[in-house]
Write a structure and sequence with these properties.
Blueprint (H helix, E strand, L loop, with lengths): L4 E8 L7 H17 L4 E3 L17 H17 L6 E10 L2 E10 L2 E7 L24 E5 L2 E5 L3 E5 L6 E6 L1 H4 L4 H7 L4 E6 L7 H16 L2 E6 L15 E5 L2 E6 L4 E8 H10 L12 E5 L22 H26 L3 E5 L4 H16 L7 E5 L7 H14 L2 E4 L3 H11 L8 H22 L1 E5 L3 H6 L12 E2 L6 H15 L4 H12 L18 H5 L2 H13 L4 H12 L5 H17 L1 H4 L28 H10 L1
Parallel strand pairs: 1-2, 2-3, 8-15, 9-10, 10-11, 16-17, 16-19, 17-18, 19-20
Antiparallel strand pairs: 1-14, 3-4, 4-5, 6-7, 8-9, 11-12, 12-13
Helix pairs in contact: 1-2, 7-8, 7-13, 8-9, 8-13, 9-14, 10-11, 13-14, 16-17, 16-18, 17-18, 18-20
């Protein structure tokens, strides 16, 4: 459970209707299997000790006593197991019968949570046998030779991991207009258990999955849905054991038409961060809750949950293409509005033949098309200097011509040499002054041409470069609208690839140049080439963007500490990078992220397209002189 990861499971036992002893044995088997797999929270289905489909047998004392005896078996078996489990059974209390979840931990009966909303329509007749949860805070109930309590307003908190707070609702409760989980989450529940017996019909699985995922998103919680399956009566219904585990809107694990365990890990630290960050999530509700505490051993949790190598990029081709189309549209709409509002006659783009300027031009072309304007209103300028190679220069020209822009080549070599002579900079001194002098000269040219043509300069720098401060202050750092500012480098590559695929049927020459740009090493081209090839490769200097985008996502979007970012990086990327390499570039990321904030504090406007942005007017407010000592000390302990 270290780093906030808790292994959780939904279990579907193979039962026999009304055979409580047998059902108890099946539940015990799942408890033991779960404990062996390191599960700390297990949810079993609704009325699993009796079977949901007992009908009028629920009114028989023999069945009710059998369910109680079976619960006693489960309690006894759980004494040596380091987990908390929810088991479904009917419970008598004050002359009425309730459909309940029994929460157990290490042989202790923590409490009973009754079902609030009883379906009595279609194929359901629960009000024939059960009472809805009483309005009282709780009822005292003698069960299994001990005194316990029954109440819907109950939360179960783990002492050893206080962020793990469990709330419980049962099946139809989730379908109701006001599910109990709303108040449970508002009072602190980070994990909702749902013991269910939802029969299967065509299309119902999609709806059920959407309910679970949506509720977990709405409540910023984990949602563990355990469904009845094999062994329930099939007189009129079939139960498919559709188990779903979701976290904040994302389905982490799912199983259908099968028995056994569905296992994954919940990240309660992630949920706690998101609740702190979200100002519309209530500090508490008006409901008064009863709190029950339990203990679990604190161990390392073996991770199996999906953690992608590229968190900004969808895994599937279809999702990725849809994401690319959406991002290009959002960014182009932002630029279109700015062009129309400023009455700019042109959009000026500096083309280097690299990925970022290519994407900026593609977005600008879309914005012009949306505005119904000709591509000639785009002034594309290539500005060769000391580090420019023939490959990038040629690609920039072909790209501009295929799109139909007004293309210009302005060689800045002589202007930079004059400037170097003025300030006393030697041409043999390939220092940062040598590099940045070129970048600032290019920005001056772009700004002046924009003035000449009554236009505005379109920025090309991306989100990853802003995170690392890999831009020249008042050089490529500055523009009049930064269309790439919310797009990380790993996604830039996919956007250009998507554009190439889209162009292939109608303009294979454009597709070919886009693919050659994709194959070109990422470089600012500010140092002289070696034998005609690019001498300066960005990722050799600052580290792989694949790593930095991963660090950025988890450090900024989720607020994870360096220790946890490092652990996730090893889990997701450890087959590609050694731990030594991961820590080297993670140190570099934090060092640069703090030291370079001053560049982000004065960024030009640019559209937000995803969940992470570093705009000083938007999602990220950080002092330029913030100190990284605490983060760097934590990294020292990992080395």
């Amino acid at each position: 459970m270290r780093d906030g990861f808790v292994k959780i499971a939904a279990g579907t036992p193979e039962i026999r209707v009304a055979d409580c002893a047998y059902n108890g044995e099946q539940c015990i088997a799942l408890l033991r299997q779960a404990a062996q797999e390191g599960v700390k929270v297990l949810c079993l289905p609704e009325l699993c000790l009796t079977g949901y489909t007992c009908g009028d047998l629920f009114l028989q004392d023999t069945l009710l006593k059998g369910a109680e005896d079976a619960l006693e078996q489960v309690l006894e078996a759980s004494r040596e197991l380091d987990l908390v489990a929810a088991v479904g059974l009917p419970v008598r209390a004050e002359g009425k019968l309730y459909n309940c979840a029994a929460l157990i931990c290490r042989g202790e009966l923590l409490g009973l949570v009754p079902k609030t909303h009883l379906p009595n329509y279609g194929e359901f007749y629960e009000k024939r046998w059960f009472e809805p949860a009483p309005e009282e805070e709780f009822l005292a109930v003698p069960l299994c030779g001990r005194e316990t309590f029954l109440g819907r307003k109950t939360l179960f908190r783990c002492r050893s991991l206080p962020q793990l707070v469990i709330g419980v609702e049962i099946c139809e409760d989730l379908w109701a207009p006001q599910p109990p989980s709303g108040d449970l989450a508002a009072q602190g529940a980070t994990l909702i258990l749902n013991l269910s017996a939802s029969n299967e019909t065509v299309g119902k699985a999609d709806y059920r999955r959407a309910l679970v995922a949506g509720q977990s998103a709405r409540l910023l919680c984990g949602y563990l849905y355990a469904d009845a399956g094999e062994g329930e009566s099939t007189t009129d219904l079939v139960f498919a054991g559709h188990n779903v585990i979701a976290e904040n809107g994302a389905v982490l694990a799912e199983q259908r038409f099968a028995s056994g365990l569905t296992v994954t890990e919940l990240d309660v630290e992630r949920l706690a961060f998101e609740r702190r960050r979200n100002t519309t999530f209530p500090a508490s509700s008006q409901e008064r809750m009863s709190w029950v505490e339990f203990d679990l051993g604190v161990t390392d949790t073996h991770l199996t949950r999906p953690v992608g190598k590229n968190p900004f990029v969808p895994d599937s081709r279809g999702d990725r293409d849809a994401r690319c189309q959406e991002i290009l549209t959002i960014a182009a709409l932002g630029l279109k509005k700015r062009l129309v509002h400023t009455r700019a006659r042109t959009a000026v783009v500096g083309l280097s033949g690299g990925l970022d300027s290519t994407l900026a031009l593609l977005i600008t072309a879309r914005a012009m098309a949306m505005a119904g304007r000709p591509m000639t209103d785009i002034v594309a300028i290539t500005m060769p200097c000391f580090g420019t190679t023939q490959r990038t220069k040629s690609n920039a020209q072909v790209l501009a011509e295929r799109i139909g822009t007004t293309f210009r080549t302005i060689d800045i070599g002589q202007a930079v040499q004059v400037h170097f002579r003025d300030i006393g900079q030697s041409m043999e001194d390939l220092s940062v002054t040598f590099e940045n002098g070129q970048a600032r000269e290019r920005t001056q040219v772009l700004m002046d041409v924009a003035n000449q043509s009554g236009g505005m300069v379109i920025g090309t720098g991306d989100l990853s470069e802003l995170a690392l401060g890999w831009c020249t202050y008042n050089g490529d750092h500055m523009s009049m609208y930064a269309v790439n500012a919310g797009i990380p480098k790993t996604l830039v590559r996919h956007l250009v690839a998507y554009a190439a695929d889209q162009a292939q049927p109608t303009d294979p020459q454009l597709a070919a140049v886009l693919r050659d740009i994709l194959d070109t090493p990422v470089s600012p081209e500010l140092l002289p080439p070696k034998e005609g090839e690019i001498a300066q490769k960005t990722e050799d200097l600052v580290g792989p963007y694949e790593l930095h985008d991963f660090f950025l996502y988890y450090a900024v979007r989720w607020g994870f500490p360096p220790k946890k970012v490092s652990r996730l990086a090893r889990y997701a990327l450890g087959d590609t990078y050694s731990n030594e390499v991961l820590l080297k570039w993670l140190n570099n990321f934090y060092r640069r992220f703090f030291n370079q904030q001053f560049k982000r504090s004065c960024l030009p406007d640019g559209p937000k397209v995803g969940s992470v942005t570093l705009s000083p007017r938007g999602d990220w407010r950080m002092p330029s002189d913030g100190v990284s000592t605490l983060w760097m000390k934590e990294l020292e302990h990992l080395s």
